[in-house]
């Protein structure tokens, strides 16, 4: 396999007596979507936090593009090309779509900013932001306030902000959450396209989306990876069916 873009080895995190991550290892290869699934409380958010630098692991390492980033915080990992989208929106609701995307682009370039107006006069950042909005299908809404967008459009904007980082890898936390059938279809098509730009570590409860998108799936149960494999392998895995998917999967 090609050198992984993201490589997690032996991540372990305890909260008191509870082991939320137990020796978790997984790779994200170029061009792939690697989905992480598991029941509520399995440790998916804890894993994402450790990958993105918001939760310090008790043990284990995270490497991004061959570099050990375990000691780096979330901002440094983002600047290094790890683009995260959030389960709960982190957008500035009173600002416009373009302003949100431009701020992402300015942050990615490491340029300081103080006011909105100077931000929008940063031509490189505006160009980067506009390209990202076009990519996710939001260019017609550039001047809209985020507060006026639909839930699905906000999720698209989250992806656009992540794109302005020119990421090496995406980490997406439930991008389908709250989307209707049409929204899920649109987001599924977008992610299938985006993975060629940068591979995606995808935490997602929507199994239709996971089965449609994932090149590989890792199943977390009680903090442990109990299986990693293709969609067909995971569907056929008896332990996974018993622990999570149920007999009708
Ligand atoms: N800061 C914390 N302090 C104590 N326990 C925690 C903390 N964060 C998470 N946990 C516990 O760790 C376990 C894993 O939680 P986590 O949120 O990572 O699971 P999850 O798979 O993301 O769940 P969900 O699908 O419901 O979002 C749970 O038992 C949770 O209660």
TrEMBL record:
CC annotations in GO: plasma membrane
ABC transporter domain ranges (all copies): 6-247
Entry keyword annotation includes Zinc-finger: no
Pfam families in the record: ABC_tran, BCA_ABC_TP_C
SUPFAM superfamilies: P-loop containing nucleoside triphosphate hydrolases
Keyword annotations from UniProtKB, A to Z: ATP-binding, Nucleotide-binding, Transport
InterPro entries: AAA+_ATPase, ABC_AA/LPS_Transport, ABC_transporter-like_ATP-bd, BCA_ABC_TP_C, P-loop_NTPase
GO molecular function: ATP binding; ATP hydrolysis activity
Keyword ATP-binding attached: yes
Name of the protein this chain belongs to: Amino acid/amide ABC transporter ATP-binding protein 1, HAAT family
Protein species of origin: Wenxinia marina DSM 24838
């Amino acid at each position: 396999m090609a050198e992984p873009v993201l490589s997690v080895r032996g991540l372990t995190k305890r909260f008191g007596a509870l082991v939320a991550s137990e020796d978790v290892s997984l790779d994200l290869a170029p061009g792939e979507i690697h989905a992480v699934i598991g029941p509520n409380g399995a440790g998916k958010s804890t894993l994402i936090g450790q990958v993105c630098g918001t939760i310090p692991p008790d043990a284990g390492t995270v490497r991004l593009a061959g570099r050990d980033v375990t000691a780096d915080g979330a901002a440094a990992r983002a600047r290094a090309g790890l683009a995260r989208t959030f389960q709960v929106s982190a957008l500035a609701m009173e600002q416009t779509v373009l302003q949100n995307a431009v701020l992402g682009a300015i942050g990615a370039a490491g340029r300081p900013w103080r006011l909105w107006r100077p931000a929008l006069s940063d031509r490189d950042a505006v160009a980067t932001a506009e390209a990202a909005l076009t990519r996710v299908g939001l260019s017609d809404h550039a001047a809209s306030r985020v507060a006026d967008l639909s839930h699905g459009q906000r999720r698209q904007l989250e992806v656009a902000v992540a794109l302005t980082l020119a990421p090496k890898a995406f980490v997406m936390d439930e991008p389908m959450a709250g989307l209707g059938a049409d929204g899920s279809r649109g987001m599924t098509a977008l992610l299938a396209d985006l993975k060629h730009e940068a591979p995606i570590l995808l935490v997602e409860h929507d199994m239709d989306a996971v089965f449609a998108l994932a090149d590989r799936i890792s199943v977390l149960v009680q903090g442990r990876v109990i299986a990693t494999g293709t969609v067909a392998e995971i569907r056929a895995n008896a332990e996974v069916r018993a622990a999570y998917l149920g007999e009708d999967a």
